[in-house]
Amino acid sequence: MKKEAGLFRVISAWMMVLCMAVLCLPSPVDAAAKDAKETADAQAAENKPTEWKDVAYGSLSGKQKMDIYLPSTGKGPYPVIVAFHGRHEDKTGPEMEAPLMGLSRGYAVACVNYREAEEARFPADVMDVKAAVRFLKANASKFHLDGSHVAAWGDSFGGKLAAFIGTTSSHRELDDLSVGPRGQSSRVNAAVVLFPALDEVHMDSDFKSLGITPALPRNEEAYGMEMYGAPIQSIPDLVAFHDPTRYISADAVPFFIEHGTADNVCPITQSERFADRLRHTIGSSNVTFVSLEGAGHHVKDFMGEENMEKIFRFLDKHMKVKEKKSKTK
C-alpha cells in the first residue's frame, strides 16, 4: 500500500508538471496569431509604406502639407531631402523630379507646400518651411527618417526658401512655434539652391548689367503690392529682409548653388553674390557654385546625369551617406 501511495504521489506530481507545461504552451489560436504577426512584420519590412500624401505639418492653412517618399530598398532610417517648389507651383509638380532622384540614392524626400504671398506675406513662407523641417525631425521614427541628416533643396523661389533655411538657424524670430512642433531645431546639414530668386530690389538692375531682357517684365507697383502690400522701391528695407544673403553668418550650412547663364527670370549675378558672401563667411570648402552654360530658368536644364551627380556627391559628403552605407555592408 505504501508503495502504491508513493507511486501515486509521483504520478500525480508528474501529471501536475505536465499540466503546467501544457498550460504554458501557446494555444493553437495564440500560435496562429504569433505566426500571422511574424508574417505581417516580415511583409511590412519587405513592403513597408514608401509614401505618405498630404501630411499636415501645420493647421493654419491647407497649404501646410507635404508628401513624404521613401526609397523602395533598404531599411532606413533614411537621410532626408526637404524640397520646395517655386511660386505658383505645387509639391506634386515637375520641379520635384530632380530632388526625387534622391530616392534611388538612399534618400527620403519630403515635397513641401507653403503659404505664398497671396495668402500670407513674408515671413510666413519662411516660417512654414522651417516648421516643415521641425515636423520631419519630430516625427522621424514614424516615417523611418534620419532626423540628424536633413538637407534643404529648392529652385527659383523655392531656392530662396532653401537658402533661408541654410542661413537662419540662429534667427529664432523666423521660427513660428505656433506652426509645427516645438522642441526641434530647423537647422539642416546642407542646402541645394538652384537658380534662386534672391534680391528683388536689384533684380532689374542686374538684368541690365547682364544685357538680358527679362522674360517677365515686372510692374514694380503691382508686384510689390502682391508680395508686400506696397511698391518694392518704396520699401527697400523690408524687401531686403526677404533676401537670405542678409542673414549669412558663421552658422550657415554648406551650400551647393547652381544657376544658368541664360536665365532671363532670375539673373545669375544674384547667385554669384550670394556664393561670394558665403565663401568669405564659411570658407570656400563649404560652398560649391556652378555656372551652367546656356541653362535657363527650368529645372529640366539641370537634370543631366553629370550635373545631378555633382549635386549628389555634394549631399553625400555633407550628409555622411557613404559612411552610413559602409556600416551596413
Describe this entry's structure for a reader.
With about 325 residues, the chain is an alpha/beta fold. The protein has 11 helices and 8 strands. It has helices spanning about 1-25, 30-45, 95-100, 125-140, 155-165, 205-210, 220-225, 235-240, 270-280, 305-320, 320-329; strands at about 50-55, 65-70, 80-85, 110, 145-155, 190-195, 255-260, 285-290. Strands 1-2-4-3-5-6-7-8 form an 8-stranded mixed β-sheet, sandwiched between helices. Strand 5 (about 145-155), helix 5 and strand 6 form a beta-alpha-beta unit. The protein is globular, with a radius of gyration of 28 Å. It starts with a helix and ends with a helix. The relative contact order is 0.11.
**What does the average pLDDT come to?**
86
The tally of helices reads 11
| Secondary-structure element order, N to C | HHEEEHEHEHEHHHEHEHH
Which CATH C-level class is it? Alpha Beta
Per CATH, the superfamily is: Alpha/Beta hydrolase fold, catalytic domain
| Beta-strand content estimate | 15-25%
Report the helical percentage. 25-40%
Query: From the 3D coordinates, which CATH architecture would you assign?
Result: 3-Layer(aba) Sandwich
Shape: globular
* Number of E-state strands: 8
Biggest β-sheet strands, sense, barrel: 8 strands, mixed
Helix/strand structural class: alpha/beta
